[in-house]
Design brief:
The protein is mainly beta. The chain has helices at 43-53, 173-176; strands spanning 2-5, 8-21, 25-37, 59-70, 76-89, 94-98, 102-107, 120-134, 139-143, 149-151, 156-169, 185-197.
Length: 209
Amino acid sequence: MFRLQGRTLAVDLTGDAVKAKNGSMVAYDGRMAFKKMTGGGEGIRGMVTRRLTGEQMAMMEVKGQGTCWFADRAGEINLVTLHGETLYVEASNLLAADAGLRTGTTFTGLRGGATGNGLFTTTVEGSGQAAIMSDGSAVVLRVTPQYPLNVDPGAYIAHQGDLRQHFQSGVSFRTFMGEGSGESFQIRFEGDGLVYVQPSERNTVGGDV
């Protein structure tokens, strides 16, 4: 269903549907119907949660027969296949997901997250494919009980698996070099799973991270 063509995602539809980021469709052929998804997720609870927390995931549903092409600011696209799992992803990095996957929002604790992303992270649950974006080629890093991982929140995209997150304040990678200023953060992952990071940092809040 999902095919990568350079920095564009092609989705072949045969009467089924796909969820995609608002404004990300660049072309389509065949017959398509479009519907805006209120709040970007399931139901009133998801909509209210996003308004309270600032987690913005404006999505649309595309249904029909043919092919749609999606892209956003020439970002790199990475395909993630889920088998009854949950993918945690920054809202700005989610490009598309199978219509059968459930999207929602979960509390992730106090963090130095990206501007506008607040204390909550978007979740994608079920079995199917999702497409996530990165600024530059994403790197997938394995976390095991023996090897935890520390990540700059500005470079974090997504994670999956049995992972626990800890948000450490007062320290960043620049702090190690004596270049830090103000309050700064790291995200520490422990457990067993995968973490997706990008080679470019977002503008962040809470200091120089």
